[in-house]
Design goal:
Number of strands: 7
Order of helices and strands: HHHHHHHHHHHHHHHHHHHHEHEEEEHHEE
Structural class: alpha+beta
Strand order of the largest sheet: 1-2-3-4-5
Length: 591
């Protein structure tokens, strides 16, 4: 990492650290293991909500704060300026907690792991080696002129963090496998303690944390060895550079003959494939050029593959951007497409930087590319953080665009994505649905009401395949207009009407409610499904339970929509034959 490889003067023994300014820290693995074990227990307390039905954004935010803050701290802390690492970790933990809290409460019943969360993670991953480098070389706490940091140290920190992180995650998996094996061994002789502990989630979280923190601390104390492993990884990756370079050249030349239409007809996401190829091109090119001029590969084949990969990024990014452009023109904006366009623009920036470096630097293009990549990394971290914070509302942008397309007729009513408006576009999307539910257009009002009442998008997507404009218009009616009540002289209490509406029993077609006793109502939905509702004597609230018969019996009694809407309704006493064993009925009735 630096030219200083001698141990610190006050070190009690020869240091295994790559940077001689960092003295040995023998207790580091144990301290990191303890910190991560406690963090694992805290995360378990925040995420273990088996008996809580409603989302808890605050608990999700606290879990993210602990997880991200602890990970950043153990990966970046050194005895030298340890308080800098603590402040950096607390800052990023708070930022990710805010992002998670906003994401968890953004969509109806949504997950906190949304696009802003991943954007924040990207910002953390890029910012951590920038912080580590600045911590090493800054004369004081002021973080000015980040773009003037030594590239070799920054590049080394980035690769070392990646290697240590990957090795630590692999060690966590090995630790669990070994613990399971030991638990099974003791279980064979009747000692179930370890096996039972593994079934307790709190133990699993603590074990994972201790394993991760311990091995990070151990590898940090052996970063000379990690540096050797890092160089080995880069050498192995560099071998793949000519393979990808030849493949990309042949691919781009083939496109000149076949055109782009085959990409759109392939059935795959062209933008995703192109950006994936561009990302691998950047990765392998950096593996070849190394930390500096003295570290670049000497093999001629590798030396020629690197500039080819750097130049190829631009056309790949251009195809990805054009693919996203066509998608937006055809179907309008969605949050995913906005994120896709931004990703394509980032790839274009890297492509332009690579092309400019190759044109200006020719064979020594890497000397010009490295400072450009350092500036791009700083810009990427800032952009990712800006996009992750709740500043720009991609859901609101998408909702306005999709509503404009619906209003103009560019998107027909039957092809409009009501589920996206209800579950993907945030508060603005649901507010738009609420306004549309009051529309004089009964079809739009019915579909909007139906989307608002859905509890999840999967049910909505499934039901939308069978939804017709007539169904939508019927869905816009009040629940009292959808139920035929018998005897006609009686009415249903408001609580029962609300329960029927909540269960969506009369969503697209009428249903029948028949009083069958005091405080008991039988409801027949479209198709003949039977439900019973009764007042709970203890709580005085209406409850329901499904009252349908077996599938064969249901098929015999299936009703048409006209039967439910117009048919006569009566309650008959029926005599039937059925088998009883020891006084208990078995199966259905038979003729």
């Amino acid at each position: 990492m630096t030219d200083s490889t001698e141990p610190a003067a006050d070190s009690p023994r020869a240091s295994a650290r790559l940077d001689g300014n960092d003295p040995p820290w023998p207790l580091r693995p144990w301290i990191m293991a303890a910190i991560c074990a406690l963090a694992g227990l805290a995360i378990h307390m925040f995420v273990d909500r088996r008996y809580v039905a409603e989302p808890a954004p605050l608990l999700d935010a606290l879990a993210a704060f602990v997880a991200i803050g602890t990970t950043v701290f153990v990966l970046g802390v050194e005895l030298r300026r340890w308080h800098w690492a603590l402040g950096f970790a607390l800052l990023w933990g708070a930022v990710m907690g805010l992002i998670t809290w906003h994401s968890a409460g953004y969509n109806f019943g949504g997950s906190p792991i949304e696009w802003p969360f991943w954007s924040g993670i990207l910002a953390v991953l890029v910012a951590t080696p920038l912080f580590q480098t600045r911590r090493d070389v800054a004369p004081d706490w002021r973080f000015r002129k980040l773009w003037q940091m030594p590239y070799a140290r920054l590049h080394s920190h980035a690769w070392t963090d990646a290697v240590i992180g990957a090795a630590s995650l692999a060690f966590v998996g090995i630790t669990f496998l070994l613990t399971v094996l030991i638990g099974q061994m003791f279980k064979l002789i009747g000692i179930n303690l370890i096996f039972d502990l593994l079934n307790d989630e709190w133990f699993g979280w603590m074990l994972a944390g201790a394993a991760f923190g311990g091995v990070v601390g151990l590898l940090r104390e052996r970063d000379r060895l990690v540096s050797t492993l890092q160089r080995l990884v880069m050498i192995v990756l560099a071998v793949l550079a000519p393979v990808l370079a030849v493949a990309l050249v042949l691919f781009l030349l083939s496109l000149a003959g076949t055109g782009l239409q085959k990409l759109w007809d392939s059935g795959f996401s062209t933008a995703a494939v192109m950006m994936g190829a561009a990302a691998f091109a950047v990765l392998l090119a950096n593996a070849v050029i190394g930390n500096g001029s003295d570290d670049r590969a000497t093999n001629p084949t590798l030396r020629w593959a690197a500039p080819v990969l750097a130049v190829a990024v631009l056309p790949l990014a251009g195809i990805a951007f054009y693919s996203m452009h066509l998608r937006v023109i055809q179907y309008g904006w969605t949050p995913e497409r906005i994120w896709g366009v931004i990703a394509a623009m980032i790839a274009l920036a890297y492509g332009i930087a690579g092309l400019w470096a190759v044109v200006k630097g020719r064979r020594d293009f890497d000397d010009m590319l490295r400072p450009l990549q350092q500036k791009l990394a700083i810009g990427l971290a800032l952009l990712a953080l800006f996009l992750a914070l709740p500043i720009l509302d991609f859901g609101a942008i998408s909702a306005r665009d999709q509503l404009a397309r619906l209003k103009s007729g560019a998107t027909p009513v039957e092809k409009f994505d009501w589920a996206a408006l209800a579950f993907d576009f945030g508060p603005e999307g649901r507010a738009a649905l609420a306004d549309m539910a009051k529309s004089v257009d009964k079809t739009k009002a019915g579909l909007a009401s139906w989307a608002l009442k859905a509890q999840d998008r999967w049910t909505l997507d499934r039901d939308s395949e069978e939804m017709t404009p007539r169904d939508a218009a019927f869905g816009a009616r009040r629940i009292e207009e959808k139920v035929r009540v018998f005897p006609a002289a009686r009415t249903l209490p408001p609580e029962l009407y609300a329960l029927l509406d909540q269960r969506s029993l009369c969503r697209t077609a009428p249903c029948i409610a028949q009083w069958v006793g005091d405080g008991r109502v039988a409801v027949v939905s479209n198709g003949g499904m039977l439900f019973h509702f009764a007042i709970d004597p203890a709580t005085k609230k209406w409850n329901d339970y499904y009252g349908g018969s077996d599938p064969a019996e249901q098929k015999r009694r299936e009703l048409s929509a006209d039967d439910v809407e117009k048919g006569a309704v009566e309650v008959r006493t029926v005599t039937r034959r059925q088998i009883f064993v020891n006084g208990k009925p078995v199966g259905g009735d038979f003729e």
